[in-house]
Design brief:
The chain is elongated, with a radius of gyration of 32 Å. It has two domains: about 100 residues, Tumour Suppressor Smad4 (Sandwich), CATH 2.60.200.20; about 170 residues, no CATH class. α1 packs antiparallel against α2 and α2 crosses α3. The strands form two sheets. Strands 2-1-11-10-7-8 form a six-stranded antiparallel β-sheet, with no helix packed on it. The longest helix has about 35 residues. It has about 325 residues and is an alpha+beta fold.
Length: about 325
């Protein structure tokens, strides 16, 4: 006997969880074992809805006096009866269903694509090596004493491996729980590439600020870091969620603003504790990176002498 229709049970993102063939009209849906379509949902009544054909290939869905009733998505308004087509989604309790005839034309199959490069373990290994090397290099050039340099390598390696490993593991666990796939190598590539880009952006902004003697370039670097961090979070979310790109982009932007704002607040708090103290750069940069003409020693001393006379004049003017 050929099915008369198919009732599809949908997930939260519209993916089909189950298809139930219908062999007679009217068909009934509910939690009861005598139903044509059994829905395992505590918010669905034992006899919740009745489905029968209507005109023009549509279907009529009627509420069987259930407590939670029916609604036609995206509206949440309860209805007693609704006529639906193959693209309409009906909500019963917390379950979404869709009704389609056997003649419904499905889309053509998609062509298989090669695995994206960032999903491959080799790409993860390369990006992890790049991040580790960059972390060791930054620690090396920020240490003045040669005796300390040798002792910095292993702590940096351990710190990077533990921190990045925990970050990747959390995202992979969420992906496994929500979507059924851990995507460990993909999350690892995204994390290592993102953190490498963050470190490089911060370094480039620091050198540009030094080279052009323009402190405002550091703020440009902060904005760039926030944008890169937002994109990194977005790629993690894309691997774990089927929500719309706009929703994921908004969530990533909010997370980036919150994290960068917290770090900026901590930085301002740290600066307030050093008020009145001389600020200096932790890395000594080669003079070749200074691309603008600085103040000559004679002009610097002359300015100091001018300020001295100004201060002495103010001191003499005081009673």
């Amino acid at each position: 006997m050929e099915p008369l229709a198919f009732i599809e049970v949908l997930g939260r993102h519209g993916d089909v969880l189950a298809r139930h063939p219908v062999y007679r009209w009217p068909a009934r849906a509910g939690r009861g074992y005598d139903m044509d379509v059994i829905l395992d949902d505590p918010f669905v009544a034992p006899r919740h809805a009745q489905i029968e054909p209507a005109a023009d290939g549509r279907f009529k869905v009627s509420d069987l006096q259930s407590v939670n009733g029916l609604s036609l998505r995206p509206s949440a308004q309860r209805v007693g009866t609704a006529e639906v087509g193959p693209e309409d989604v009906v909500r019963l309790g917390q379950t979404q269903i869709r009704i389609r005839a056997p003649s419904y034309a499905v889309r053509p199959e998609l062509a298989l694509r090669a695995t994206a490069l960032y999903r491959r373990p080799l790409a993860f290994a390369v990006m992890a090596a790049a991040l580790l090397g960059l972390g060791v290099w930054n620690a090396w050039i920020m240490t003045a004493s040669r005796d300390e340099k040798a002792f910095l390598v292993f702590p940096v390696i351990i710190g990077v491996c533990v921190g990045v490993g925990v970050w990747i593991a959390v995202w992979s666990l969420v992906g496994r729980t929500v979507g059924g796939r851990a995507n460990f190598a993909a999350h690892g590539s995204v994390a290592c590439a993102g953190l490498t880009a963050l470190a490089l952006t911060d370094t480039v902004a620091d050198y540009l600020s030094f080279g052009f003697n323009a402190g405002w370039l550091e703020y440009v670097g902060i904005v760039a870091v926030a944008a890169i961090f937002a994109y990194m979070i977005y790629r993690h979310l894309r691997l774990n969620s089927r929500a719309s790109q706009r929703s994921l982009g908004t969530a990533a932007a909010i997370a980036s603003v919150a994290v960068c704002g917290a770090f900026a607040g901590l930085g301002m708090a740290g600066d307030s504790t050093r008020e009145g103290k001389l600020r200096y750069d932790q890395t000594l940069k080669p003079p070749a990176f200074l691309w603008v003409t600085g103040v000559t020693p004679a002009a610097f001393l002359a300015e100091g002498e001018r300020l001295k006379h100004k201060v002495d004049a103010v001191a003499r003017a005081e009673p």
